[in-house]
Amino acid sequence: MAFSYHYHLPESLIARQPASPRDASRLFVYDPATDTIALDRFANLGRHLPDRALLVMNDTRVIPARAMLTKEATGGKVEILFLVNEWKGSGPVPAIADRRIRVGAELRLGHDARFTVVAQDANLFFLQPHFPAGRLFAALQRHGVTPIPKYIKGAGLKESELRKKYQTVFAATDGSRNDGGHPASVAAPTASLHFTNRLLRRLEAQGMRRTSVTLDVGLGTFAPLREENIAQGTLHTELLRVPEASAQAIRKCKQGERAPVVAVGTTVVRTLESEAEKIMDTRWCGPIADATQIFIRPPYQFRIVDAMITNFHLPETSLMMLVQAFLAYRQAPRTLVELYAIAIREKFRFYSFGDAMLIR
After folding, report:
1. Arithmetic mean of pLDDT, 285-289
2. SS3 assignment, position 23
3. Of 148, 224, 139, 137, nearest to 184 (Cα)?
4. Whole-number Å distance between alpha carbons of 354 and 349
5. Res 90: pLDDT
6. pLDDT per residue as tens digits for the range 118-147
7. Domains and CATH numbers, the chain
């Protein structure tokens, strides 16, 4: 890394709960061209967006993918996080366990869902369902809990509340995508959590447009960087989809209207920059379905994204490097760590349930 992505955050600034209403969260606005900062509320986002902006949002849905399973042999309990974002809908389900489980072990989720541990790769286990694969999501809806990050302690929210609050207001539902698939994330696209339906209507009335892509978010979004990431220049794999209508809207902005494309969240940035060649290709027809391992870090030449909305991220993560790459691309006089220092001084709330930043 060219410079440190470390900063000290007082524990009191780790957001335990989202703002209520969602758009009451604070907004840190930075304009790299003028090196100016404005502090506002997210409800006033429309005042700060570029004219004629196209907002691109991630419509994935967070699944209650963390569940307590029972070992058939001993009756012991094991907490499992089903990595549904990596699962193709058939075969064994990749999962992370909170303790050691042996290959061959039989596990039970409730009374109607049984699994066999068929393989292990380091701390990753593969669980073969003994029921039709299509019922997995229904079983998790009944028995699972929302996989909020472990660092959010003492949230004080009931599971019924978490399922609403750790979910965007525009999350897609099963079968609602163009390919009929199931959007399935184990972490929220947190920059999108600030939007309310009221704010979306207000932005539309102001002439702002929006479109959606899907990137199913995995745990890697929070993971510290490893030496192999730096050496190989790749990150964790995440599945993505860009509907044909969204690609056309973005292409029209970039090639015809010269209107700014605003990525709502780092997951959207990863999606758009991963698929920039296809999105910009006028000969491409149909939706784009792919997997990405893109690692955006300085220096990086952005091809699609003109502005971004993002949250305040964990230290020394790939997310901080992505945002710093955008600042460097925009030739910003300040680094992200310097901006975070101002946000900390102004007592902005950090991480998944925290406040937002707009780099315009």
Report:
1. 93
2. helix
3. 137
4. 5
5. 85
6. 999 888 899 999 998 778 999 999 999 999
7. 11-62+169-359 (3.40.1780.10), 66-143 (2.40.10)
